[in-house]
Amino acid sequence: MTERLTVTLAPAEGAIVRVLGLVERRGYVLRGLSMKEKADSASLVIDVEPRDGSRRTPVLAQQLARLIDVRAVSLATRDAGSLA
Known about the structure:
With about 80 residues, the protein is α+β, with helices and mostly antiparallel strands.
């Protein structure tokens, strides 16, 4: 099942690389990515799918929230058929 994470972060050097690196190292496949940037923040919308059933996306969201420059993380579960 694909799940969507919305990550709000400070537009700092290396912030996006840290977020995407953590997602990959924690056993998730990146299925989609979009970004919106404002003067003082950026918002990443990431569609991820766990590589195996033992991965828990709420745990990934908590780990992302601990990264430097990450301000907020929200999680929404999506059906694979509803991804556009």
